[in-house]
Amino acid sequence: MPKVTVENLSKVFGKKEEQALKLANEGKKKSEILERTGATVGVNNASFSVEQGEIFVIMGLSGSGKSTLVRLLNRLIEPSQGNIFIDGKNVSKMGKEDLRNVRRKEMSMVFQNFGLFPQKTILENTEYGLEIQGMAKAERRERAEKALDNAGLLAYKDQYPSQLSGGMQQRVGLARALANDPEILLMDEAFSALDPLIRREMQDELLDMQEKMNKTIIFITHDLNEALRIGNHIALMKDGEIMQIGTGEEILTNPANDYVEKFVEDVDRSRVLTAENIMDRPTTLKIGKDGPNVALRRMEQEGLSNMLVIDDSRKLYGYVTDSDTARAVKNHEKNFDNILRTDIPTVQKDTLINDIFEVIHDASTPVAVVEDGKLVGIIVRSLVLGALAKDSEVSL
C-alpha cells in the first residue's frame, strides 16, 4: 500500500465553487472557469500516490497550484472535492481531533521562510512543536538536541536565529520538523530563498538525511534541476492540473505533451541522465571457454580493437587487445593468462553522464558499466555525445 494516495483532489477559491467544479470536471480550462464563474481553480482533479521512503517532487511555475496542493494534504487548505489517504486512513474525512493528531505526529512541514522565532534560542525553536504537544521538558529537550545533532547544529543550540546564516536557519527549520519524528515531511519551496551554493548543500544534506532516516518526503519546487536532482518521482503541474508524473529520466526522454517538452528543453542532460540510460550491449569473451584464436577472429569480424572478458555469471575480469591477442596466437597460447589487462575503467549504472566525462576522456578503452561486479553494459564516447545531442545543439 502506498504511504500517501490522492484521488481526484480539487480546490476552488471563490463563491461559485459548485459551478466551477462542474466545469472543471467537464474538462474546462482554468481561464475559462474564471471568466464564467469568477472562481479560481487552484487544483484540478489531482491524483497520485507516494511510496514509503521516497522523495516525491511536485513542481511547476508560479500559479501552477503546487503550493496549494501540498497544503491540501494536511488540510491547511480544505479540499473542494477528492480524497487524501495516509496508510489507508482518509484524512479528508477526519474530524478536528484526528486531524490535529495527524499534523502533530504523522506530518511535519518545512516552509521557505524558515518560520523561526527570533526571541527563542535554536534549541527552543527546535523543541517548540513538542512543547505545544505537551511533552515533558526533559524528553522534548533530548529529542530536540538529537535532531540538532543530526543536522550538525548542536553546538549552536544556545544561539539565536539572527546569529546564523540563511542556510543554517533552514537547517534549524528542518531539524524542528524532524524532532517530531514524523512519517511524512512536507517541504514547500524549502530551499528557494537560499543562495545557489547553500541551496545545493541543503539538497545534499536532504539526500544524506534520507539515506539514514528513510522518511516519506513531498517536496515542492519551481526549479526543474532541483526536482531532477532529489526526486524519485516528479509531478509537473500547470494551471492546477498535473501534466505528467514520472521519474526524471521518463519526463526528459518521453514528455507527455508539448508543455512538458517545452518545460524540460533547456535541462542539462549530463546532470540527469545516467550510465544506464546510454550504455550499449557489449561484445564479450568468456574466460575458460574462449581463447586467443576465437578472440582474434571475433575482433576481426566485428572491427574491434579490444574485447571485454567475463565469466558465465558476467563477472568482469578485464579485456584483451587485438595486438596482444595476435601475439598470443602466434605463440600458440590457449588462454588469456598472459594477455588479460585489468586497467579498464568502470562506473555504476546510476553514475551521471556529467561524471563520466572525465573517466572516458582519459580512457584508452570503452568504459564498463557494472553492478555488484557484474558487467551490464559498455559506454563509448559516441554514446555520451549522442545523448547530449538529443537535448540541444551542444558544442563539445
Automatic annotation (TrEMBL):
Domain ABC transporter per the UniProt entry, residue ranges: 21-264
UniProt EC number: 7.6.2.9
Membrane topology of this protein: Peripheral membrane protein
Span of domain CBS: 278-338, 340-394
This protein's UniProt keywords: Amino-acid transport, ATP-binding, CBS domain, Cell inner membrane, Cell membrane, Membrane, Nucleotide-binding, Transport
GO MF annotations in UniProt: ABC-type quaternary ammonium compound transporting activity; ATP binding; ATP hydrolysis activity
Record bears the keyword Transferase: no
Cell compartment(s), UniProt: Cell inner membrane
Biological processes per GO annotation: amino acid transport; glycine betaine transport; response to osmotic stress
Keyword Glycosyltransferase attributed: no
SUPFAM superfamilies: CBS-domain pair, P-loop containing nucleoside triphosphate hydrolases
Any Pfam family matching the protein: ABC_tran
Catalytic function, reaction form: a quaternary ammonium(out) + ATP + H2O = a quaternary ammonium(in) + ADP + phosphate + H(+)
GO CC aspect terms: plasma membrane
Gene3D superfamilies: CBS-domain, P-loop containing nucleotide triphosphate hydrolases
Record NCBIfam families: proV
Similarity comment text for this entry: Belongs to the ABC transporter superfamily.
Subunit structure: The complex is probably composed of two ATP-binding proteins, two transmembrane proteins and a solute-binding protein.
Protein's name according to its UniProt entry: Quaternary amine transport ATP-binding protein
Organism whose genome encodes this protein: Desemzia incerta
Lineage: Bacteria, Bacillati, Bacillota, Bacilli, Lactobacillales
